[in-house]
Amino acid sequence: MPEPEIRELRYFRAVAEELNITRAADRLGIAQPPLSRAMRQLEHRLGGDLFDRSGARLALTTAGETLFKESGPVLDALDSAVRRTQRAGQSSRGLVVTAKPGVATELLHHLVGELRDVLPGIEVVVSGFGEQADMVRDGRADVALVSRPFDDHGLELEELYTEPRVAALPAGHELASKDVLEPDDLAGIPAPRWSRANVAERNYWSARPDDPVDGPIVQDSSQLLEVVAFGQAIALVPRSMAERNVRPDVVYRPVTDVEPYRMLVVWPAGSRSSNLAKFVEAAVKHSSEPPAAQ
């Protein structure tokens, strides 16, 4: 039996996500009849129905749910391979480095300054929370500076440094009178939620992961500090971030027994790029101490 074509799998995922042939056809930019025929052809190739067509709207069968779950990583891997291959074939290709604003970009400024002559054409992409590892995996970046926690499958990594995290709280908060806080001091107090954070990331940024209280959703460190200043949450932040963001309406206090902030450099598993090796070597050499202490 012929194997499914990549085009058919992409069509299938559009129909599975929309559960409506007309909307899926519009999304794909094709007419409805060819899309319907493609789905029937795919079902014939696989030997079973992927959609339940008996109701008022489409629904996935058990086989359809399985294909939807399994086809996503396959297509993502293919797209990543295409991107990496295209980038590898560019004659004037420079190293693409990504990091999110804050502690990571502070370090990246130092590294780019040091490596401009060694790695001409180095390109920096400032990315959002939680995007860095995915960008390296799918070929949009060659290397990233990223903090734990994150999904490291398909990546190689080197830990650059660790540093304590401290609590950022409004200057007038009752806990500001204490020199050192304990996690129990923060019981019942909202913590900011990073946009798109998963459970592990949410727990990491809470002083009490077994009993978290969700505060406002934030996109970056500037927004986080404003949320704190307005008394909407108390946040755990790297000590170096606190040292760089001294302001009258926010105070910082040490917190005992919280996991430290960890900065790592990550790259695709198995990469043999000499430019990548130079960047990693420079990052390790430069990072014997956190950025604020250098």
TrEMBL record:
Domain of life: Bacteria
Highest classification ranks of the organism: Bacteria, Bacillati, Actinomycetota, Actinomycetes, Propionibacteriales
GO MF annotation, one: DNA binding
Native source organism of the sequence: Kribbella jejuensis
GO cellular component: protein-DNA complex
Every HTH lysR-type domain range: 4-61
Family per record: Belongs to the LysR transcriptional regulatory family.
PROSITE patterns, sorted: HTH_LYSR (PS50931)
Keyword Nuclease attached: no
Record bears the keyword Transcription: yes
InterPro entries linked: LysR_HTH_N, LysR_subst-bd, WH-like_DNA-bd_sf, WH_DNA-bd_sf
Entry keyword set: DNA-binding, Transcription, Transcription regulation
The protein, known as: DNA-binding transcriptional LysR family regulator
Any Pfam family matching the protein: LysR_substrate
